[in-house]
Amino acid sequence: MSNTEQTLSIIKPDAVERNLDNEIKQIFIKNGFNIFKEKKIQIEKSEAEKFYKVHETKPFYSDLCSYLSSGPIVAMILEKKNAVADNRKLMGATNPKDAEEGTIRKKYGISIDKNSVHGSDSVENAKIEIDFFFKD
Ligand code: IDP
Ligand code: MG
Description:
With 136 residues, the protein is of the alpha+beta class. It has one domain (4-134): Nucleoside diphosphate kinase-like domain (Alpha-Beta Plaits). The chain is built from 7 helices and 4 strands. It has a 4-stranded antiparallel sheet, sandwiched between helices. It is globular, with a radius of gyration of 14 Å. Inosine-5'-diphosphate (IDP) is lined by residues 55, 60, 64, 94, 112-113, 115, 118, 121.
């Protein structure tokens, strides 16, 4: 029985725009993640609204969805043992100002909205989010 877990990671438009995608991918690899699948795409705002539906009542929902659809992103299925939790740890806090030293958001994040990466927050949501980008 394999204990490998999968999580969905997104390199967000602010990072792709600064050509940081390869550098960020190397950080995942260095930290033991296998990039099982990846694709660089730009999504429609309506798709971002579906992806972030859990946040639909938040005041920042519309801006968040505009932002995620504002430019190319890199969606990846990351694999390792404890991938979901380990990715959240490696990403750092939502607000880069609060992110710990050595985390991706500390290093690259610009602001709470332009925080460079997304990562699934549970195994259950990882499955839903992986399907969202890679089921076809
Ligand atoms: P997470 O990405 O760390 O899981 P969530 O609370 O799920 O954080 O929020 C999703 C995304 O919405 C964040 O990554 C960030 O880009 C954006 N966001 C969260 N809180 C705020 C806010 O207070 N203002 C603006 N954008 C926010
Ligand atoms: Mg979240």
